[in-house]
Amino acid sequence: MKLTDILPADCVVAPLAARDKLAAITELVDALARAGRLIDRDQMLQAVLDRETTRSTGIGNGLAVPHGKCAGCPKLVMAVGRPAEPIDFNSADKKPVELIVLLASPPDETGPHIQALARISRLMLMDEFRQAVKAADSSEAIYETIAKHEG
Fold it and tell me: Which residue in 6, 22, 76, 98 has the fewest CB atoms around it within 10 Å?
């Protein structure tokens, strides 16, 4: 699986209008809903927010990967957002996030969901990738950066 297989180009949002974690998650869920990738937008938003209450998805290196599973999502999909200003996500390294990757999947797609999380994490370990995302001047440029670096 390639990330671009589950990331619709129109679900990359840069810059995000959001200034906080809740607004950023909502904005990315809304992008998936507008793209016709969700059956039930509200159910998906609630699933992601419920998951976020168990433990922050700010994993460090400027990355947050909020995610959720529910029947309101027919297949694994992804939305990416880069906030105009870094957002506090209560990250493990105590630093704000500069890239938010939201994963949404049905309850029975655990394997692909975990595989996507691993791919995202690997990309964010690459300094060249992080710098390219930071330098990207549009949603399209971020999408192209992901496509170029994944492989």
Answer: 22
The least confident of 11-15, 102-106, 111-115 is: 111-115
**What's the domain range around 65?**
3-149
Q: What CATH number is attached to the domain comprising 14?
A: 3.40.930.10
Closest CA to 66 of 35, 34, 20: 20
Which pTM value belongs to this model? 0.95
CA 102 to chain centre: 3
CB atoms within 10 A of CB 8: 17
**What's the CA dihedral at 150, 99, 48, 76 to 10 degrees?**
-20
DSSP string, 30-41: HHHHHTT--S-H
